[in-house]
Design a protein that fits this description.
By secondary structure, this protein is mostly helical. It has one domain: Sodium:dicarboxylate symporter (Proton glutamate symport protein), CATH 1.10.3860.10. Helix content is 82%, strand content 0%. Helix 6 packs antiparallel against helix 13. Bound molecules: aspartic acid (ASP). The site of aspartic acid has 16 residues, from helix 11 and helix 13.
């Protein structure tokens, strides 16, 4: 309960100074609501935020150019220090993320398709597989959007109206595959650095990973950058990201496939219910 109350900042400036990400996000959401209400009147501030975002993305891109060298050095020192155990732990991390994604697709998506959409999940996966394979090869939800909309409309019978509202929205804010990776990575990094996590830390990880995944852009690798926010929130070392950067691409491909499947699942459920309503 205290964690939830703590999300509301009493002083946003001191939350910024302390790097309290949850409070910052809550503050940003309030400002966003204000901007949405005021529309034209606050066009200047809106453009300021947009341009600040452009500058930050450019700087991140510059920094990411040096990432392979940093990752090489950190992975080499991790393996040098911990021996082959480090390779084993990285492998275990990878397998955990993959199992989490499979479980999420096989259980969560399938169950909600069956229960809420009263449809057959196997049928859904059969029809949507072509889009999943494009997401897998591009590792970008945004780049896959045209294909995933076309696949949902043609193979799953989702109407254009539903598809063109739900899927673009989902491609921007619904990234559950990314959230699965971020939560697993946070726990993995806490174990590598032997920093114990309390139950309340786990709850904070769940909330922050969900929020961080909403803020993740649908392009390759951004989920890993947003992971810094999750780590910060529970006091884990951000350098830990370097340990998983080397193996992230393959996980990025898998989680992107999962991200766009979540959007299509939602569109499919709405569409199936809509069809049933129209048939009555
Ligand atoms: N590549 C992911 C996507 O486009 C985002 C990420 O997790 O890095 O959905």
């Amino acid at each position: 309960m205290e964690t939830i109350v703590n999300i509301i900042p009493t002083n946003p400036i001191s939350s910024m100074a302390a790097g309290d990400m949850l409070q910052l996000i809550a503050f940003a959401v309030f400002i966003g609501i204000g901007l949405a209400f005021l529309g034209e009147k606050t066009q200047g501030i809106y453009s300021l935020f947009e341009q600040a975002n452009e500058i930050l993305m450019l700087l991140v891109n510059f920094i990411m150019k040096t990432a392979p060298y940093g990752a090489f050095a950190l992975i080499a020192s991790a393996i040098g220090g911990a021996g082959l155990d480090a390779v084993g732990s990285m492998g275990a991390y990878m397998i955990t993320v993959i199992l989490g994604l499979i479980l999420h697709a096989g259980l969560t998506y399938s169950l909600i398709i069956w229960l809420l959409g009263r449809a057959n999940p196997i049928q859904f996966y059969k029809g949507f597989l072509p889009a999943m394979s494009v997401a897998f090869s591009t590792a970008s939800s945004s780049a896959t959007l045209p294909v995933s909309m076309k696949t949902a409309q043609e193979n799953l019978g989702v109407s254009k109206n539903i598809s063109s509202f739900v899927q673009p929205l989902g491609a921007t804010i619904n990234m559950d595959g990314t959230a699965v990776m971020q939560a697993t990575a946070a726990v993995f990094i806490s174990q590598v650095y032997a920093i114990p996590l309390e139950f309340s830390d786990i709850i904070v990880i769940i909330i922050t990973a969900t929020l961080a995944s909403i803020g993740t852009a649908g392009v390759p690798g951004v989920g890993l950058i947003m992971l810094a926010m999750v780590l910060n929130q529970v006091g884990l070392p951000v350098e830990g990201i370097a340990l998983i950067i080397g193996i992230d691409r393959i996980l990025d491909m898998l989680r992107t496939a999962m991200n766009i499947t979540g959007d299509a699942t939602c569109a499919y459920i709405i569409s199936e219910n809509d069809k049933r309503k129209k048939a009555i």
